Amino acid sequence: MPYNWIAMPERLYAAWMPYSMMLDDFARELANSINAFTLNVQRLSAWATLMTSLGEEERAEALHEFIDPIATLSLLMPYAIRSRLLFATAHLCHQVNLVRETDWAEASLPVDDKIWMDSADRQGARWRNYNRLKTRIEAIGGKRLAQATTNFRNTFTHRFSPRVGTGITNFATRCFDPATGKACYSFGGTEPLDLKELTALLVVELDRCYAAFAAFQVLVGDQVAYVTEKNSEMLATIDRDPAAGPAVETGSA
Asked: Is the pTM of this model over 0.85?
């Protein structure tokens, strides 16, 4: 994903400083996250090709030293990127809404650890291109990935996830019969995730992250256009009357 694609004014009315600094931070970190995810999926793809030529001992060593750490991080990244996109979108929309919407309250955005999809929905509702971004964010890390990986993210965090390449987990599992409500037990274990199949799944998630980032750029473009226009009006007021408020020289944004 690209860097340095934001064209904020070099001289800003002070009210826009939170938006400017957040946008610079969020855009860079989103690109970093998606680009790191890209590199790790490429590494997994290379290992999936190489593994067929390795002996049993070499395969075990490669899985332990290289593949398992990369695969684990890669399986967690779609959900992390999804959450970061929501977080960034909610904050950026909120900052512009505070100026653009006369009825907008600071309290409409919850504290950071309570920002979820509903928060982004509330903040983005009045932005024309928000729904496209929302649809693309929702596609990241969806049911298809969860089902194909035995809900890896959840089980890795809270229980015992499937292994990658080799090893069986969850030999005995407790469950409940929905018809009777009684406990039952299943035996046999969870098979490891196949490396080639896993890589193919993650390539799809990458494409969804790219699409969401592109939609994020469109929404930000709308916001920056508004900020630039409004900023000029605010600065003109200051130039006529310096007591009207401060301006800040930001340099190249």
From this structure: yes
Q: How many CA atoms lie within 13 A of 93 on its CB side?
A: 28
Alpha-carbon torsion (94, 24, 111, 34), positive or negative:
positive
The string of DSSP codes covering 207-236 is: HHHHHHHHHHHHHHHHHHHHHHHHHHHHHH
Alpha-carbon distances of 177 from 40, 180, 185, rounded to whole Å: 40, 6, 10
Task: Give mean pLDDT in consecutive 10-residue pieces for the chain, a chain of 253 residues.
Answer: 93 90 97 98 94 91 92 95 97 96 94 96 96 97 87 79 76 82 81 89 96 98 95 81 60 44
Beta strands in the chain (DSSP E): 11-13, 172-176, 183-187, 247-249
